[in-house]
Amino acid sequence: MKVTIQNIGTSIIAPPVVHARFSIGDVLKHRSFGFRGVVFDIDPVFANSEEWYESIPEHARPDKQQPFYHLLAENGENSYVAYVSQQNLVADDSEEPVDHPAITGLFGDYADGKYQLRPRHRH
Hints:
- GO terms for molecular function: DNA binding.
- This is Heat shock protein HspQ.
- This protein has two helices and nine strands, in the order ββββαβββαββ.
- The protein is mainly beta.
- The longest helix has 5 residues, at about 50-55.
- It has helices at about 50-55, 105; strands spanning about 5, 10-15, 25-30, 35-45, 70-75, 80-85, 90, 105-110, 115.
- It has one domain (about 20-115): SH3 type barrels, CATH 2.30.30.
- The chain is globular.
């Protein structure tokens, strides 16, 4: 979706307004695959490579005009970084912390399903 704004005879293209449902430090779960992760960054719209996007089966490709979340993720066997569309995430209600080795470098305390970002990483 594109929005055109008229301004004294000049047209500019403004990106659509999107709203992130989740915040940095939230513990989330993938809706289909069940892996869990903690949010450490948010892109307001898709900001990965076209190659990455095209690698997703066409029937499962998410809309690019929604927030995408960077997660420190775990699946019970491995720890990794995941990039997931908002439509594929739900809040994790397990109240269990995420077991990822990078968490202690970015986050401090864990309480009520959320990690607190360390002060040196806030802007």
